[in-house]
Amino acid sequence: MKKLTALFLALAMLLSMTAVLAEEKPAVPDPKSILEGVTLEPSKALYLDNHVEITGMGVHFNNYPTEFDGAYYFPAIEKLTNAKFMIDWRVQDGYETQVATTLASGKLPDIMTAGAYGIINLANEGAIIPLDDYLHLIPDIVEAVGEDRMADWRQADGHIYTIPTIVDVPGSQSVMIRQDWLDQLGMKAPETWDEWVAMWRAFRDNDMNGNGDTTDEIPLALEMGGSGERAMASLMNAFGIRASSDTQFCVLDDGTYTMVYEHPRFMEFLQAVQDLYKEGLIDPEFTMRKQAELFTVMDTGLVGSAMTWAERARISTTTNREAGDEDALWTCVAPIKGPHGDQMTQERKAVTPVWCITYAAEEAGKVEDILKVFNWNFTQEGLVLYNYGIEGKTYDVVDGKYVIKPEFVSNGFVDYRATGMEYEPFGGRWFTDAFTQCLFAGKTVDQLDDASQSFYNGLAVVNNDYFYSMPQTLETEAYAEFRGELITGAGGVCVLRDQCIAGQMTVEEFAAKYQQLKDMGLQQVIDQGAQAYATIMGN
Fold first, then answer.
1. pLDDT tens-place string over residues 393-419
2. Which of 65, 76, 12, 15 is nearest to 42 (CA)?
3. How far apart are CA 364 and CA 481, in angstroms?
4. How does the average pLDDT of the chain come out, rounded?
5. What is the distance between the alpha carbons of residues 149 and 142, in angstroms, rounded to a whole number?
6. What does DSSP say about strands 429-430 and 351-357: parallel, antiparallel, or unpaired?
7. Is 247 strand, coil or helix?
8. Helix (H) or strand (E) holding 80
């Protein structure tokens, strides 16, 4: 039975969660101490004759150290390869403006991430160099990408400009439901569109969190993503729209690359979501709820279903329970099935562009050394450092297998990353083995608690038959020119779509306004995207 005190305790518990976890989890060594007493011999795969300093500017995120002496990773790279990285880490918010300011200064670092500024914009301005003629220097990266994924590495002009990061785990996000709410209602997880709608209505009407307020439940909470684009991914998938990560582009059944608004089911989708919104079944703040805010409402007993990182099923279950809601359980389920039987979900983007090499590095004669160091990161030696850390300190070799020490995985991914392993802002190749060691913390699936099992199911079980490979958002010249004005801007198609969902215009009125935007330049975005996709795919 729900406890009426749960919601009142939740916020206080969230504020104290860090302290609680710090008391309960096994002691983790100070990341700065990991290299103490360790002698790292020069790498046999690569050791540069001359010491090289590589400056960079990139986006830092998640739970990773920011200081170069705050983890083992970068000092170890220097000792092994004789290359020192000095990266100016920035946050995502405002990064586009910061890149523009850096370009205007004329003083570029050797490497930089493009972020929202756009790789093609950097290329068109001559700020970065294409890597097509240097692929022979990075054979291990080429092999890691693989022939089947080469198209994901290329940009809209057909060139390769970036050092990628690769994650060998197809699952990442999942639809999830409050199982305890279903149990209260005597319902099972929905398997048809009508059952999904019936469940959302039941969540809306029955004071599921037991706080006496029949209006605060959010049947389906949605995360806005960039400019509100990503919020609708799970619902678009239910209507057979295989969308890009920002949900702006798709590939039709005949292989045509286009904007999602051209999909034959888009207007039907839009009408259905408008109807859901009118009934109070989807998040009224879907255009504004950022990821952290989504997590907060999930953690405080306000949400019945959501689409987010599968790990959140475990974290939010634990948080709700520690706040007094002892029956709370988020369970990951198969994707929402639409009215026509469509059921799919986005596969994790396996190849993600990270570092561009600037003309400043080319002028300084550093390009070959930089590429050699990044390629070393994809050799066996570099991969072990990235995935497992330092032998005897963060992992041991047991029967020929790299086994991460328990203290670094007992708290899931938190301490593993805080130490500097899988340093995602820098990038590398993350093995499924290292991932699952963090997930299982030395246990088998059967030994996991119910919250961790739910996470595992969302990651590697319930979604496996429904993945599709996301098409790229191709940064053509037209896209770069019109994105801010016609896609994400105040009068852009994203805003018009959201206004339509909120009932501020009819679907027919949206269609008419969309046609006007096509006449203003969106048609160029569509045409150039289709041409670029055909080029990349070799058609």
1. 999 999 999 999 999 988 878 888 888
2. 76
3. 32
4. 88
5. 10
6. unpaired
7. coil
8. helix 73-81
Classify residue 503 as left (phi > 0), alpha (psi -120 to 50) or beta: left
Residue type, 243: A
Query: Exposed, middle or buried: residue 104 (CB in 10 Å: 0-12, 13-18, 19+)?
Result: exposed
Predicted local distance difference test score (pLDDT) of residue 347: 84
pLDDT at 241 over 90: yes
- Count of all residues that appear for the chain in the document: 539
User: Rounded distance, CA 329 to CA 316, Å?
Assistant: 8
Compute the half-sphere exposure of residue 525: CA atoms within 13 Å on the CB side of its CA.
Answer: 27
Determine the pLDDT at residue 62. Answer: 65
Pair of tokens at residue 164 = 């990628």
Which domains, ranges and CATH numbers included, belong to the chain? 6-23+172-250+259-348+463-468 (3.40.190.10), 34-165+352-436 (3.40.190.10), 477-536 (no CATH)
Integer Cα distance of 480 and 528 in angstroms: 11
CA distances from 503 to 272, 278, 281, 284, 447 (A): 12, 7, 14, 12, 48
Q: Note whether 120 and 476 are within 8 A (CB).
A: yes
